[in-house]
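Query structure, 233 tokens:
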């Protein structure tokens, strides 16, 4: 675990501390012709070697450096203004996967990717509370068409969906970990934030629509969490 933490620390320093915004802009403008791209890769390799501080593990720094170059180069070539955010997350995920692979390579054994019954249960419950539950709630309350004085441009696109997903996952985590007080805090916090929206709307149908959606969201999360908890050892 110490080796993994060293590899992650080297990545965080190389990608987020030593790499300045000016470097990022130059890489995006010049792409593979940018000298900062290759200097950035060299920094990563050196940081990995320094943190491991073992000549016998030179190959780990080499693997990190080469794969970092390939991943960053692919991101720069494929990146557009619309895909920039998505590719950032994919880029970081690939770097972390490489780090984990190098860690296992250093340890000298191949990991067994198997999940226990408890892990599968929690994973299934958590996934169900994301987009499947959003679709379920949206379908359930689709018979209502509330009026609202708020313009579409006044809110972030799909913000409600992602807020619902996050709140359900938090409720799920709080309950399976035995912290019901966290659920009460979430309900109180959302009630405060929603109060201003409901008073501005001045529409009873919209108020009822939001309340139904909120109760369905919290209710589903609580029910799934209780069901999963009942099967946990």
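Result returned for the query:
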């Amino acid at each position: 675990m110490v080796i993994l933490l060293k590899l992650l620390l080297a990545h965080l320093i190389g990608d987020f501390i030593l790499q300045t915004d000016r470097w990022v802009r130059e890489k995006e403008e010049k792409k593979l012709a940018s000298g900062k791209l290759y200097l950035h890769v060299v920094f990563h390799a050196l940081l990995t070697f320094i943190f491991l501080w073992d000549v016998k593990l030179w190959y780990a720094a080499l693997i990190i450096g080469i794969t970092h170059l390939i991943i960053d180069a692919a991101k720069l070539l494929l990146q557009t203004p619309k895909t920039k955010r998505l590719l950032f997350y994919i880029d970081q995920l690939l770097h972390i996967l490489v780090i984990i692979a190098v860690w296992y390579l250093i340890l000298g054994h191949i990991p067994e990717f198997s999940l226990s019954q408890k892990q599968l249960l929690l994973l299934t419950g958590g996934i169900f509370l994301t987009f499947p539950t959003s679709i379920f709630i949206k379908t359930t309350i689709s018979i209502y068409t509330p009026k609202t004085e708020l313009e579409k441009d006044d809110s972030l696109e799909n913000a409600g969906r992602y807020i619902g997903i996050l709140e359900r996952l938090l409720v799920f985590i709080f309950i399976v970990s035995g912290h019901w007080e966290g659920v009460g805090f979430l309900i109180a916090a959302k009630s405060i934030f929603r109060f201003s929206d409901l008073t501005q709307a001045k529409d009873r149908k919209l108020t009822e629509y939001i309340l139904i959606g909120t109760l369905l969201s919290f209710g589903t999360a609580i029910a799934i969490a209780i069901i999963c908890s009942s099967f946990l050892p």
